[in-house]
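@channel sequence for tomorrow's demo:
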Amino acid sequence: MQARQRSAAIILLSFFALLGVQIASAADAPKFQLPDNVEVRNVTIWSEGSRLDGDLYLPKGLKPDEKRPVIVMSHGWGGTKLKLQREASRFSAAGYIALTFTYRGWGNSEGKMTLLDGMPKLNKNNEATVKVHFIREVLDPIDWIQDFRSAVDFISGEPHVDPQRIGVWGTSYGGGIVFWSAANDDRISVVVSQVGGLFTPDRHLEPLAKQRATEIAREGVDKLYQDKIENLKGWPNHAKWLQYDPVSMARMIKVPTLLMDAENEQLFDRREAGERAYDIIRADGTTPVRYEVIPKISHWGIYSDGFEQANGLAIEWFDKYLK
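structure tokens (generated this afternoon):
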């Protein structure tokens, strides 16, 4: 059992080491320039007591009572809202409102923390001065799911947004988050996932995940920081990963869904991710679904050589089902 556990851990670490190396190639993407017909407003999204750093992209010249469809967006592992500037501005230039944000514990977003000296005595307003340790750059899919739901909560109250026309878009790990969200939130009307991490968790990792869960529960959050992966920002929370299986949500998807994969995807088997999700949704026979493989690119090529095609397909899909 221990040998199998070590083997599974080595496989996972090798997978994420490759992911980390590939992050550098995202720098090849063209530089961002805000279109003249788009404006950006910084916003704060509250999620379980933490402030998330967000940006709202709006078409210029909206009338006071004008309502537009909105696209709520999700970045991937190691990213922030700034990684989505090009896509968000393109969506807004096409007539949509777009919301980007950074997940808790990353970038300029707040996050979880622990008290260094234990629970203090509170005043009558439940206030105290304390020393804390911030939990930063931990990839926890359960937290991400809640943060994304909070972003949908936030945008539902935006004056220029039509709450009946909420679309979601996600890339890489965020592609799995929006897929999961679309299956569990009936406010979402359309979903687009590109190079989405829709893979099923590796059950060989279950012993490691259980071990980490026990260590964290008994010894504290420092045990979150023991699986550092070379060349990759942040730490995976193995204890939470086995609770997250986005492709299993495919049978619950009842809204128009566009799935895009890279032909030369190297981070996971796309046949077990986007293609499998597509087959499950299509078998229902009632839900519009499309699966596109962007030719001649790897995972990170979606941000460079494959950007125009992927972005064009996304806008085409939103125009058809969200406008």
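heads up for whoever presents: The chain has eight helices and twelve strands.
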